[in-house]
Amino acid sequence: MTRTLKAAVFGTGSWGTAFGMVLADAGCDVTLWGRRAELADAVNSTHTNPDYLPGVELPRNVRATTDAAEAADAADFTVLAVPSQTLRAGLAAWTPLLAPDTVLVSLMKGVELGSAMRMSEVVEDVTKAPAERIAVVTGPNLAREIAARQPAASVVACRDESVAVRLQTACHTPYFRPYTNTDVVGCELGGAVKNVIGLAVGIADGMGLGDNTKGSLITRGLAETTRLGLAMGADPLTFAGLAGLGDLVATCSSPLSRNHTFGTNLGKGMTLEETIAVTRQTAEGVKSCESVLDLARRHGVDMPITETVVGIVHEGTPPLVALKELMSRSAKPERR
Ligand SMILES: NC(=O)C1=CN([C@@H]2O[C@H](COP(=O)(O)OP(=O)(O)OC[C@H]3O[C@@H](n4cnc5c(N)ncnc54)[C@H](O)[C@@H]3O)[C@@H](O)[C@H]2O)C=CC1
Ligand SMILES: O=C(CO)COP(=O)(O)O
């Protein structure tokens, strides 16, 4: 008889909880770690996460704790699902507690401010685990839809394909179809930059612009993501897949996307402060647009949409002015 796999999920927000549910539906025993005892108690007593996934019944093999050592104990997979900019500090505290040889799995779609590191790089830097034991899950996976068990595909990326296959098996359910990929750089960039493009599309939507604008931003957004990926050694085909186009389309079309909604509020004329005040959950692109631009500059890559988003979000450029600037750039060939 095969042993039941154990997974620890650090982060009881919407995606940590929903992915915990996927792992549990696939047969793993799952322990969520969160900071607040009331939420852990609610998960254990009511089998729901009332703060982040209200109304969703969690499988019985999902439990929660505030004790990081208890969560980490003997975990085959240690899943990290906290806001990207908090990962380094959190993981430093959890590292001594991690099970030896656990596979570290990042669900996060951000780039660290200052270091411009992708999340798997932060994981490697903090834990000193080899890259072959660090995996990424990414793709068009809006947490609420996954929690409703609506069908979706995803990507499980790891430099070591056999590790990716193990994780693929551990999270494969009738409604969640993971594909493996060994291009970790491309998969992570796809996830992080789509949040920035999602902000741009949201801003355009908020300004009342239509589907031609949206189609243009999505396509040119993908072009600048691919340019950055190529400069960083990613496989350009990754961006035509679930981690690139797939996630971009989901994020840029959905009112469930926090980045898209954040952009829409800005496009409607709300200030950054007002928008932050009405945003309860993590919209990674708001901070990561700066670190993505930092990466682009380090690699000498032109990312005009990302630059425009940074201008609107962090430099107070009015959306209409930023849009005019974007449209008045010099004409060029589509592929360059
Ligand atoms: N929600 C979604 O549909 C998806 C989210 N993601 C990514 O997953 C990551 C996590 O996002 P969500 O779960 O959606 O965010 P969320 O905002 O729903 O939850 C974040 C969780 O992290 C906790 N947290 C905040 N600051 C913390 C800190 N300093 N230390 C420890 N815990 C802290 C919060 O209490 C909360 O439990 C993000 O990088 C996001 O881009 C990826 C795919 C889908
Ligand atoms: O990454 C996501 C869907 O794949 C979730 O997008 P938001 O973080 O914008 O909600």
The main sheet orders its strands as 3-2-1-4-5-6-7-8
Total separate domains: 2
Secondary-structure arrangement, i.e. CATH architecture of the largest domain: 3-Layer(aba) Sandwich
Estimated structural class: alpha/beta
Q: Give the CATH H-level superfamily of the largest domain.
A: NAD(P)-binding Rossmann-like Domain
Keywords: Cytoplasm, Lipid biosynthesis, Lipid metabolism, NAD, NADP, Nucleotide-binding, Oxidoreductase, Phospholipid biosynthesis, Phospholipid metabolism
Catalytic activity: sn-glycerol 3-phosphate + NAD(+) = dihydroxyacetone phosphate + NADH + H(+); sn-glycerol 3-phosphate + NADP(+) = dihydroxyacetone phosphate + NADPH + H(+)
Enzyme class: oxidoreductase
EC number: 1.1.1.94
Account of the protein in words:
There is one protein chain. By secondary structure, this protein is α/β, with parallel strands linked by helices. The chain folds into 2 domains: 6-182, Rossmann fold, CATH 3.40.50.720; 185-327, Orthogonal Bundle (N-(1-d-carboxylethyl)-l-norvaline Dehydrogenase, domain 2). 49% of the residues lie in helices and 12% in strands. The N and C termini lie far apart (55 Å). The mean pLDDT is 97. 1,4-dihydronicotinamide adenine dinucleotide binds next to helix 1. 1,4-dihydronicotinamide adenine dinucleotide is lined by residues 11-16, 34-35, 52, 81-84, 86, 90, 107-110, 141-143, 281-282, 284. NADPH binds at residues 14-15, 35-36, 52, 109, 143, 258, 284. One of its GO terms (cellular component) is cytosol. The active site is at residue 194.
